[in-house]
Write a structure and sequence with these properties.
With 311 residues, the protein is of the alpha+beta class. Helices cover 26% and strands 28% of the residues. The protein has seven helices and 15 strands. It has helices spanning 29-33, 57-70, 79-93, 164-176, 220-233, 244-248, 280-293, and strands at 9-12, 15-18, 36-46, 51-55, 99-107, 119-127, 139-147, 181-185, 198-203, 206-209, 237-239, 252-257, 261-268, 271-272, 304-306. The strands form two sheets. Strands 7, 8, 9, 10, 11, 12, 13 and 14 form an eight-stranded mixed sheet that branches. A seven-stranded antiparallel sheet has the order 2-1-6-5-3-4-15. The longest helix is centred in the first third of the chain and has 15 residues, at 79-93. The two termini are 18 Å apart. It binds 4'-deoxy-4'-aminopyridoxal-5'-phosphate. Residues 40, 193, 196-198, 217, 219-222, 257-258 line the site of 4'-deoxy-4'-aminopyridoxal-5'-phosphate. 4'-deoxy-4'-aminopyridoxal-5'-phosphate (PMP) is lined by residues 40, 193, 196-198, 217, 219-222, 257-258.
Length: 311
Amino acid sequence: MNISIENRFIWLNGELVHLPDAKINVLSPTSQFGANVFEGIRCYWNAEKQQLYAFRLDDHYRRLQESMKLFRLKSRYTIDDFRQALLDVVRANDYREDIAVRQTVFLDGFGTWSSKEPVGMFVAPVPKRRIQYGADTGLTCGISSWQRISDRNLSPRAKVGANYINSRMAQLEAIEHGYQSAIFLNEQGKIAEGPGSCLFMIRDGRLITPPLTASILDSITRKTLIELAKAEMQLEVMERDIDRTELYLADEVFLCGSAVEVSPVRSVDGYVIGNGLAGDITNKLHDIYLQVVAGELSAYMDWLYPIYQNS
Ligand code: PMP
């Protein structure tokens, strides 16, 4: 489906508007300081069922509400309002393909970095294909010289726009150094996460990931993969601190998130991970994940919200 950018709808403050007509104040706190909280939500098209499934919508909205609370933002929107806005705008565009939806609650109007209102919201869906990795592809990553933000300064637990300046610094440094992506250490010098993703490693058949107190986002994909690894692959899963050098010696490493799905890492700081190919466990988990999000595994339909109710 090819809807030109100009003809795409976004939802802005209660109205469906074409993308070029969506205007916000250049002097608003969101524009000046990244004063917004947001979610990146994926919806996957199932051609056989002619259905578009939104993945773990209410979990995204609960996290959005938590980000709003931490950021001292109040709005009249309930979880039902959040969901309805997404349904309205996706249906208005009649998307019948995989999409990514940016749903953002932001500080609007003339304001400063300490303003608390007016609070606006937009929901902007765009087409986004699932990522396909071949066996010999995967990311080259470098440990960033930038430390992940921490709960003592700008909490990574809140998904605030301004947090992504920290991500930007790491990602651009990694590219400058010839890597494809970055991995952050936290205040304690332990592995935290990627610039927009969480991290898992596999050693001796065990799946290991940093705990929620390691300066990471409470990732919905991370939660999903932990559950799938236990239930579908009978893997032992450990949430514990990871040392930098443990990553170098890992059998497999991958990043995960709504946007990157399951992305194998083939080297860290030039140390080849395993045999340098996407690992077997990573590939299997990736497969299961894509089946779940597209509504191909009946046991996990509770995580999916069918956008087109009548089809
Ligand atoms: N960490 C960061 C910093 C992120 O931006 C993201 C993407 N939202 C994630 C982790 C993964 O979170 P999720 O699985 O909920 O998309």
